[in-house]
Amino acid sequence: MTKLSVNINKVATLRNARGGNNPDVEKVALDCELFGAEGITVHPRPDERHIRYADVYALRPVLKTEFNIEGYPSKEFIDLVLRVKPTQVTLVPDAPDQITSNCGWDTKTHQAFLTELMDTFGEAGIRTSIFVGTDLELIEYAAKTGADRVELYTEPYASLYPKNPEAAVAPFIEAAERVHKLGMGLNAGHDLSLVNLKYFHDNIPWLDEVSIGHALICDALYLGLKKTIEEYKNCLR
Ligand SMILES: CC(=O)[C@@H](O)[C@H](O)COP(=O)(O)O
Ligand SMILES: NCC(=O)COP(=O)(O)O
C-alpha cells in the first residue's frame, strides 16, 4: 500500500500572505488526516516563507498519522528535527534561497556528511530518507549512508509525462527496482498530480509513500479538500 502524505507548505504560504491565521495550518493538517491522508509533510526553509519552525512544533503533538519533515540539514534544521522527533526526516539538498527543490543529493560527494546524519537521526529513533534522482550509482551511495529510504525526485517524470509517459517513467522503474534490491524503502515526490500519479503508481506499485503538496492544494480550490484527497487516494489503489 502506498501512503499519501500531504505537504501543507502551500497552506502556510496562503496564511502568511495576510499575517493572520487564516487558513489555520493546524486545522487543515488535521482535516487532511480526517479525509484520509496517511501522513503530513512539511518543508521548513530558512526564511520561513511558508511553514515556520513554530508550526512544526505545534503540529507534532496533534498529528495522528506519519509526520515527515523535509529540508536541508543546517544546524537549525537538525536541532528542530531532533527536538520534534517526527516519524521521518527527508534530507533535501536545497540552497537557502531556493524557490523549490530542484534536484536530488550527490550522495557520492556527500557520503560522509550524510552517513553521520543518518546515524544521528537513526539513534534518535527517526526514520531517515534521502532525496535522490534516478542515477543508479547515486542510489547505491544513498544505501551506503545507512538511510532507511530514498525519496525519488519526480519532477523529470512529471514534465515528460504529457508527451511520453513510457519514457518518463522508465528511469524511475529502474531506480525503484535498484532501491528495492538494496533493501531500502521507497518514497517519491515533487510535481506529482492527479494527471500523472496513477500511471506512476501503476508502474511502481511497491512505493511506500508519495508526498504531494503544490498540485493537491491547487486541486482543492476546485474540488474541495475532502474530494481532492479521495481522488489522490484513488490513484494509489
Ligand atoms: C522535496 C520536495 O520536492 C518538496 O518538499 C518540495 O520542495 C516542496 O516544497 P515547496 O512547497 O516549497 O515547493
Ligand atoms: N517531497 C515532495 C513534496 O513534499 C511535495 O512536492 P510538491 O507536490 O509540492 O511538488
UniProtKB/TrEMBL annotation:
It comes from the Bacteria. Its EC number is 2.6.99.2. GO terms for molecular function: pyridoxine 5'-phosphate synthase activity. GO terms for cellular component: cytosol. Keywords: Cytoplasm, Pyridoxine biosynthesis, Transferase. HAMAP family: PdxJ. This is Pyridoxine 5'-phosphate synthase. The gene is pdxJ.
